[in-house]
Amino acid sequence: MKISIIGIGTVGAAVATAVKNTGLAHEIVLFDRNGVRARAAAEDLGHAAAFSYDVKITAVNNYRAIRGSEIVIIAAGANQKVGETRTDLLHANTDVINDIIPRVMANVDPKNVKIIIVTNPLDVMVMIAQKLSKLPAGRVIGTGTMLDSARLRTILARQLSVSTQSVYTYVLGEHGDSSMINWSSACIGGIDLNTFCRQTKNTLPATTRKTIEHRVHNAAYEIIQGRGATWDGIAGAVADLVKCIANDEHRILSVSVVDGSVDKAVAMSLPRIVGNNGVVATLMPKLDATESAALRRSAKIIRKNFDSVK
Ligand code: NAD
Per residue in 196-231, is it b (16+ CB within 10 Å) or e — as a string? Predict the structure, then answer.
């Protein structure tokens, strides 16, 4: 499979490494408006490939070279600086997506391509990309709350002394400050969270849940404070999404696509079945009244931000 990545900054380069390490791509094309940066990344990654999979990695200076890509990953644009929210990037990154999508669409097969959006503020960027590309909504996929859900699963797994692999729970809504934790459908190894806690003599009182929510919501801010940006977590999420698409796995991932599940034509994260054709179905988990209200509020925030730049 040929995969192209647009935007080879901190995140794009980490994504390239993680995608290479899936072994699923025979060719990875890197494009950045800073050609020197992309060429250096291709060179470095090419050397790393000598120790793993045989994959052709090239940096290119025009979009013609992405022809034949089955997946195009967009990781270009401004990132959060200390003290900034994802929404602070709205105007700058709208320009970036407006610049990139027409160029991508002029060089890919619209019947087959899947576009993965990483650029923040994620959900609005998905809406803009889908509108510009005119692709079916299920093939313009934002990584959404895959990363937030991974953060939640990791914290819960440590709290409950089980493997992260056994924790099934989602952060839903915006990939941003209004995201919400879907405690109502959380389960551990197929057993609902409350029953699991009773049987294992764990307790998760409201104060602990609040602390967990705070840690999930603030994870990106803390990482940016400590190392200037975040890249490893998102690279893992993108590689997992690529694997799910490439292998037509039909796994359920909390990704963001435009649909009307919560509000009219808004992109936000819900549990969705993902396969070779992108998102093939959307699921509505069990939600209590507070969670439903939080999800609707999240949709309104995304819609308002989209309306301010469309
Ligand atoms: P960075 O500044 O290190 O890199 C951005 C790159 O984009 C630069 O190399 C720049 O030259 C390139 N670029 C900008 N405009 C371009 C254009 N029009 N065409 C081609 N290339 C262009 O930033 P980063 O840390 O790599 O972050 C990139 C994006 O990823 C940011 O928007 C950030 O917020 C987002 N991000 C998303 C998640 C997520 O969970 N979705 C996680 C982390 C970062």
Answer: bbeeeeeebeeeeeeebbeebbebbbebbeeeeebb
All domains of the chain in start order, with CATH: 2-142 (3.40.50.720)
pLDDT in tens, 239-280: 999 999 999 999 999 999 999 999 989 999 999 999 999 999
pLDDT for position 308: 95
Closest Cα to atom 4, ligand 1: which residue? 9
In contact, 305 and 124? CB cutoff 8 Å: yes
Q: pLDDT for 208-240, tens place per residue?
A: 999 999 999 999 999 999 999 999 999 999 999
The mean per-residue pLDDT over the stretch 31-38 comes to 97
CB 187 within 8 A of CB 194: no
Mean pLDDT, the chain, whole residue set: 96
Q: Which of 29, 32, 126 to mutate to test the pocket of ligand 1 (most atoms within 8 A of CB)?
A: 32
Global pTM value: 0.97
Distance CA 109, CA 273 (A): 23
Q: Which atom of ligand 1 is nearest to the CA of 8?
A: 9
Query: How does residue 41 score in pLDDT terms, banded at 50, 70 and 90?
Result: very high
CB 235 within 8 Å of CB 14:
yes
Establish whether 175 is a catalytic residue: yes
Q: What is the number of alpha carbons within 13 Å of residue 163 lying toward its C-beta?
A: 3
Ligand 1 proximity of 121 Cβ (cutoff 6 Å): no
Which residue has tokens 């647009």? 6
Spatial CA neighbour of 140 closest among 271, 279, 301: 279
Task: Verify whether ligand 1 is closer than 6 Å to residue 109 (CB atom).
Answer: no
What is the distance in A from the centroid of ligand 1 to the CA of 118?
8
Ligand 1 in reach of 6 Cβ (< 6 A)? yes
